[in-house]
Amino acid sequence: MSDLTTPLTVSTINVNGIRAAVKQRSAENLGLLHWLSETGADIVCLQETRADDEQVAKALAPAVAEGWQVATAEPHIKGRSGVAVLSRHPIDDARLLESDEFRSHGRYLEVDTAGVTVASVYVQTGEADTPFQQEKERFMATLAERMEVLRTAGREAVVCGDWNIAHTERDIKNWKGNLKKSGFLPNERQWVTELLETGWVDVVRRLHPDVEGGPYSWWSWRGRAFDNDAGWRIDYHLVTPGLAARAVSGGTEKPAAYALRWTDHAPVTVTFG
User: Is the preceding omega at residue 215 within 30 degrees of 0, hence cis?
Assistant: First the structure.
């Protein structure tokens, strides 16, 4: 880990459509591009770009002009999924999942940059007792296999993104009403537990061990979920132990008001010293 750039700040954000996130409230000088120009992050993982590589490049052109390096994984179905990684440092290599089923889905992209491996992941939403949930579980199994390779590779790594799973009751406001719904199913939660048991660290939870309400990172657009902080914590940084030990701060960048939102998620940011 001697070549790790420190301090190093890593953010993750589901943009809920990158073209919309760029345009959203641009007249008020808000939105994704403004956030990128203001953030102190060195590396940013994006999920749900819902755009092909050319469209992402066009949307992020102003950020690239400011010095960001970009790697992308476009979705195989138009308007769905899509992930990207932005770095202020050179991106030395980029890789997709070695999976016949999921390689082209735009749900996983890992890069080597700043002396660390960083992956952006977007796990399916799923729907209990349907083929959508079966696909989600196959992806989870494939992802776990790749994470085991990363964990034992001897290089520090961060796998972050929208996991679409609230791990514990502390990670979801209305946990009682979601016990039988995808995102809070027992086998999904156990899958996260097993990742942590192998050595991966949920670094934001480690930094906030006593927080009962999240800190949440997603709120429905509907009703008063945001105002009432009735959210889900589904955006995680899972980090190798050596790097996790160097985490000095982290949490959710929740907007100050509903009107300032440019996506239904909030950035989750961690700094390693």
Answer: yes
In terms of residue numbers, what domain contains 222?
Answer: 8-272
CB atoms within 10 A of CB 140: 21
CB atoms closer than 10 angstroms to residue 15: 28
Dump pLDDT digits (tens) for 59-87. 999 999 999 999 999 999 998 999 999 99
Domain with 53 in it: what CATH number?
3.60.10.10
Is 56 part of a structural domain of the chain? yes
Q: Does 1 map to a domain?
A: no
Structural domain count of the chain: 1
What is the pTM (predicted TM-score) of this model? Answer: 0.96
Active site members: 122, 162, 265
For residues 214 and 252, give the distance between their C-alpha atoms in angstroms, rounded to a whole number.
9
Q: What are phi and psi of 80, to 5 degrees?
A: -130, 155
The DSSP annotation for 118-137 comes to EEEEE-----TTSHHHHHHH
3 within some domain = no
Query: How confident is the model over 84-142, as pLDDT tens digits?
Result: 999 999 999 999 999 999 999 999 999 999 999 999 999 999 999 999 999 999 999 99
Give me the pLDDT at residue 6, please.
83
Known binding-site positions for Mg(2+) = 14, 48, 162, 164, 264-265
Task: Specify the pLDDT at position 26.
Answer: 62
Q: Please report, in range form, the residues annotated as the binding site.
A: 14, 48, 162, 164, 264-265
